[in-house]
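FORM 7B - TANDEM STRUCTURE REPORT

SECTION 1: FIRST PROTEIN
SEQUENCE AND TOKENS:
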Amino acid sequence: MVAMGFVMAMTAPIEILYAHRFGAGTVAITAFVMISSVGLVTVDLFGTRVVPRLEPRASITTGMTGFALASLLMGVAHSFPPLLVARALQGTSAALLQGAALQAAVRTSDSRERALGALNGAVLLGGAVGAPVGGIVASLLTGTAGYRLAFGVCAALGVATAVGMWWLLPPLPTSERPQLGLPRLSGSSVMGLALVLGMLGYYLRSGVVNTALPLVGAEHHLSTSIIGIALGALAGVQIATLRFADRLFVRFAADDCLVFGLVVGIGASMLLVVADGWVAFTVAALLFGFLVAVAMVGPPLVIMSLSPDASTGLASYRIACGVGSLAGSTSINATVAAAGAAGALSMIGAVLLGGIGLVGLIARRLSEP
């Protein structure tokens, strides 16, 4: 799972910067950002009774191979349209890969908190190395040549990782037959609120980590290597937080952990509004790292507690992840284009403030008789 995180994070800091090199306008860049999330949502929405019933090892290997192919397509593209095809394949492959990995982690552990923390921690450990490596590789050559080199290296490592996963992961057969169709979700109003909260983690990962921070860094005239290193440090904070996730969420209530993390995120947004330079950028990235870690564990625990079984809860959560990813990348990119980095950061702060209110509402509903 560490290798999976490395490959998936390696080109994250440079993808949107690479797309700008093709001279695309605001609408085209928005489509570039959106289409990956559309693929993610499509798989999660129509595959809630497919992915949980597939053999996880085969699904993980297939998803990683597709992700590697998407990286290769980006690297060899000489016009903007092939980038859209590559991004669509990337989103679809990532949804299959992440959904299968989540199912495998929970099915092989007797502690949900430990399983979620270990999986996210392993992926982020790879990301902590992959993000700066991608930025550094892209800076080795001038123009688009450096970007192409980074995508090529990412594709090669993705294929190697897929082969390794096939040989090293144990088979986890399932007796249920896959059924393509819309999900069967609980009609509970509390579950609806919990699913909205579940969007938060991937809203932050897609909208803040993969979109806002690279764009803010570019607006502050930071190099791709500095941006990559800061995102690697962000992943490092996530790893440290997730390492103790089981203890954190057992000792403190999930709503308290989430509220504290959201307050930290608001502080990070304000810091980037009032200060620039690599120091402020790195400190804000570290603060966002804590928030994203908390937001990746708290909501799925709440959703699974409200679901008849863990697999159904995780499938529901994956839908929320896809919607959050789409909302984050689309809204942040559009806001940066219309109002600049300060406008996007202000919007992020407002979303996080709304999240605090949502956590409080869910806690009150759960406490009602």
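SECTION 2: SECOND PROTEIN
SEQUENCE AND TOKENS:
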Amino acid sequence: MTATQHIIHRTGEPSLRFTGEYLGDVSDNGYDDGRDECVTFALYRTAAGKWVAVSHHETRTMDPDYHGAKVCEDVEQVYGFFGFTPEAQELYRLASIEPIEDVE
């Protein structure tokens, strides 16, 4: 792990500062198909083993951009933050995590 210090700014909440590794990001550029929003997801792993899930929503409208982030204790919380959209699935692939539900 290449640990560096990161600061993640959030809308309406304190920024997050941590040491860890950037695992990747993906974007859904809604501008390309006429939508008014572009969404970017990013994922980090802290030196302590926690996950930092980040979303940035940028709009072409008068609505302000939104920067959200959550510290996740486990990968299940990461899945809860991003969900299972095609963009989220791509981010999981980049981060080498695989959402699988085991059935007995």
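SECTION 3: OBSERVATIONS ON SECOND PROTEIN
The two ends are 34 Å apart (CA to CA).
The first strand starts at residue 4 and ends at 10.

SECTION 4: SIGNATURE
Preparer initials: ____
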